[in-house]
Amino acid sequence: MSTNPLLIIAASEIDSNLYYATRFLAPDAFVYLETAGESVLLMSDLEMDRAKAQARVDTVLSYSAYEERAKVRLGERPRLAQVVHQLLSDRGIKAFDVPSNFPIEYGDAFRGLGYTIHVRPDPLFPARVLKRPDEVEAISAAQRAVEEAVAAAMQTLRDADIKDGMLYHGGAVLTSERIKQLINVKLMERDCVAQHTIVACGVDACDPHNQGSGPLYANQPIIFDVFPQSSQSRYFADMSRTVVRGRASDGMKRLYDAVLEGQEWGVTQVRAGVDGKTIHEGICERFAAKGFETGVKDGRMQGFFHGTGHGVGLDIHEAPRVSRVNHILQAGEVVTVEPGLYYPAIGAARIEDMVLVTADGGVNLTRFPKQLEL
Fold it and tell me: Are 221 and 253 in contact (CB under 8 A)?
């Protein structure tokens, strides 16, 4: 682990590492410097008082004061790197680390001022991977909101009438857009913000990131994938379910049962010390043993062609991965287990839970039932 000072220049509203380091939320970029024994913010006058009251750092300094000092030295209005140079010079810093997404514009400017810059590999803060009890509680709270919203959507599907193979509700065709709106509004009522919610029916569901559009049909699979962020805690939750309103075909039932068995087996394998790659490969082997092969057919990928899971926290996709890459699970990680199978001629299914890794096994943070036919 590097002992160099760390410099981040970003907006914490979109940079989860900066928010993790400071617990201060701001829409505009600010400067964070972490040195031995001190964490420092260089803030605009607009945010000074709020940062002093809210940020979990040792020192909050005025950007405009450092800007004025740099202006006196240069005889002209300084650029951001020249202002930060004043801060670094005061502390005798000649070399520092930056995150992998550090803007190249600033990197070039600092190198031009004589600094040596090292890119610190991800995860920038290894402690982020291991969730504290309060973080697990925040993720779980977001998950309860997801389950409430999806339950309302499922009830709407149950209440829908079937006419000519299509679903109707309130006298109108029930669409993916209506169900997504219902879910997203329910989440807003729980102070969560959803983006890219997936309600994909039929062939649309065979593309794992197709958000779905248009009418929802009876007797066809509908994949729900809901992953909002809490506006209060900033933590995400993530859950997928697959349902059929009406009757599923025999082929779809076999496919769903294979995914359910693989997913539930995967959850049982989660524990500290297990290689995530082993879990992923075990699910792949189970699918293949049931005749569900993966590969290109009729010009598109079919079968199980994505990872089994990913970390969840301040980002919806963060370290670690449960996939073809080796990773030994550690107690405190929160990972998804979300295998899927996708065949346009049969249907598609994906089932996803979030699981807390412990030394004794996995604790499933997801409580929502798994049921194919509604």
Answer: no
Of 334, 330, 320, 270, which Cα lies nearest the Cα of 138? 334
- Domains of the chain (ranges, CATH numbers): 6-124 (3.40.350.10), 128-364 (3.90.230.10)
Question: Could you give the residue ranges of the DSSP H alpha helices within 228-349?
Answer: 250-269, 276-289
CA angle 294, 296, 299 (to 5 degrees): 150
Omega before residue 121 within 30° of 0, cis: no
Instruction: Classify residue 249 by burial, with Cβ atoms within 10 Å: 0-12, 13-18, 19+.
Output: middle
Mean pLDDT by 10 residues, the chain (374 residues): 92 98 98 95 97 98 97 93 97 97 97 97 95 98 98 98 97 97 98 97 97 98 98 98 98 98 98 98 98 96 98 98 97 98 98 98 98 98
What is the DSSP secondary structure assignment for residue 190, as one 8-state letter? T
Q: Helix, strand, coil: what percent of the chain each, to 5?
A: 35, 30, 40
